[in-house]
Write a structure and sequence with these properties.
Structural class: mainly beta
Low-confidence stretches: none
Shape: elongated
Number of strands: 11
Order of helices and strands: EEEEEEEEEEE
Strand content: over 45%
Helix content: under 10%
Largest sheet: 7 strands, mixed
Distance between the termini: 40 Å
Length: 119
């Protein structure tokens, strides 16, 4: 079993910054990819950013140039540095990891952390 624990959410004014962290623990042989998704009230959950074990990154168009995803493979932790935040970034942010737990790999999700950007 794998647990993902997020931290770093909160309330910030527009133009401000926040840094989210997500630490994975449990029976982990390797983590293929880690990602951040977000879900605003009444909307579907969408990908914000993803990083592979080879450090290839993918970003949603709406956050390119403002958000940066990174990971620490030793600590099994992924980070999301969010700059120039806008009110439309307000959402619950979820951490996701595709983990090799042998004999198979599975998707795991964190509990979510609220990010609120005031105008």
């Amino acid at each position: 079993q794998v647990q993902l624990v997020e931290s770093g959410g909160g309330l910030v004014q527009a133009g401000g910054s926040l840094r989210l962290s997500c630490a994975a623990s449990g029976t982990i042989f390797s983590i293929y990819s880690m990602a951040w998704y977000r879900q605003a009230p009444g909307k579907q959950r969408n990908l914000v950013a993803q990083i592979t074990s080879g450090d290839t990154t993918v970003y949603a168009d709406s956050v390119k140039g403002r958000f940066t995803i990174s990971r620490d493979n030793v600590k099994n932790t992924v980070y999301l540095q969010m700059n120039s935040l806008k009110p439309e970034d307000t959402a619950v942010y979820y951490c996701n990891a595709f983990v090799d737990t042998r004999p198979r790999a599975s998707d795991y999700w964190g509990q979510g952390t609220q990010v609120t950007v005031s105008s």
